[in-house]
Amino acid sequence: GSSDSNPDAYTRLLLDVLRGRSATFVREDELRRSWEIFTPLLHKIERENIRPVIYKRGTRGPPAADDFITEKTGYIRNKDYVFFSDGDVKRKSNNDAYGQVDIGVYGLSVMGQNFALNIASHGFDVCVGNRSPSKVDATVKRAESEVGGLPLIGSSGPEDFVKKLKRPRKIIILVQAGKPVDETIKALSKYLEKGDIIVDGGNEWYPNTIRRSKELEPKGILFVGMGISGGEEGARMGPSLMPGGPKEAYNELEKILTSCAAQVRGGPCVGYVGPIGSGNFVKMVHNGIEYADMQLIAEIYDILKNVVTLGNDEMSDIFAEWNKGKLESYLIEITASILSKKDDITGKGHVIDYILDKAGSKGTGKWTVQEAAQVSVAAPAISGALDARYISSRKEERVHASTILKGPEEVPAIHNEELIEDIGRALYAAKICSYAQGLAVVKSASDEKDWGINIASCVHLWKGGCIIRASLLDRIQEAFTNNPDLPNLMVDPTIATELEACIDSWRNVVIACTNHGIPCPALGGSLNYYDSYRTASSPANLTQAQRDFFGGHTYERTDLEGPHHSTWTSAHKDIGNIKERTKGNR
To answer: What are the residue numbers of the active site?
Structure first.
């Protein structure tokens, strides 16, 4: 086939390959999607006898065509390109984009870059900015390297960044929590006006978010604190988003956020959480539950390794099997992968055995424990997980203490299938309790601060994209949907039945830990939480009597109303007006 005239299809294919005409080739799925777009157009023309609008070759055509395509298929025309009459297509320069870009992302760590690319991949025009220009250039290059290119442009500085955005301007900042957030807001807000929106997507302590919102109020700038979970992969492919702030701001952001959030059965993993501060609070508690979940898995790993004496590959297989059932979750899934990973550096053994046993933390776990105390909610799995990280960081002290402090004498290993089944059930029950504790913190804080957080909707946000996503969340969401006023997850009838089925196994595992000297602050703490919550009569009467004895704190009686005080010894005196003394007691 040397001739170009009327070649058969196969010859034309070979000729196109030799000439490098890659645009000729279309994948079958692309072809099918193209027909999904054009078929309704052709049917509409045929049904309604529409006379096609004639427009000059190479131009974009009537806006109505764009609107129709968007309505029928969800596709949005990429406005970042100019179509010239000679058929040429060129990308707009940055100056062409002034006032045209849908949203801005400022702060281009890997998280910021990935989230910007995520938004752009859903057809929204994105402008990116960063204190260092090199990261702007790198992000733009990443967008250009994507198949077909993504509608993402850079900016030269805060003023240029803001000028490129449509009104009301929508900006998501993803910089390190604390002072960098304040500095970024200061740099951008001088170019913003009433009705513009700033979203802080970092792991920020919620009082700081409330403060910033108040500081921006005089200028009329709307501020949103939005928790983002899912790590770098989630940011690119679809994270869990927890926005809290003015409802009018969320309404402006909703179309973009619902498009780029993780998608699960029941809808995208994003929704309006509540007033300013609530989004950061929910993300903080999410991280607290994450601490507890990770600690539970670490304790189970410790038991399987040192009580059941399994190898890494055997443990990996167990976690992989658990991930096919009730324990299915992101953290169980990655644990199976971690345990089976061979060491790339030495080529010997598994990488897990070379990792130093010191766990870091960035503050959200500590904040969760502090806020739980603030609203008088027990969260032993979360606090136990935090304590375990603190103790792990004191590696040298632990090594020294191991030569002085003695544990149980040599205890025989327990290598049987029944114990492994007990361990799986114990983990499941403890996971339920860790969610119960975290959601109790959210509910109490929401009631106290009048945030009106819908717990069932909050749980839905965690069902995809985030670190604590798990099949268990379906049952938890159902529990709070059936009873929005549920005081605690554990008393839902279905959940209570599941806990009852696990309780003997749970106790057996905690006993095994005690006998072998294995610490289990989350596993044991959750069991103590369960037992404390189900106890109708606790020993707290003695504690309150002691408080009254040494401090005159008074107590309530089971048979009489109001506060009371006893003259416990001849040394005790009348404490005066009891009601005045106890005013303000929590």
So the answer is: 283, 290
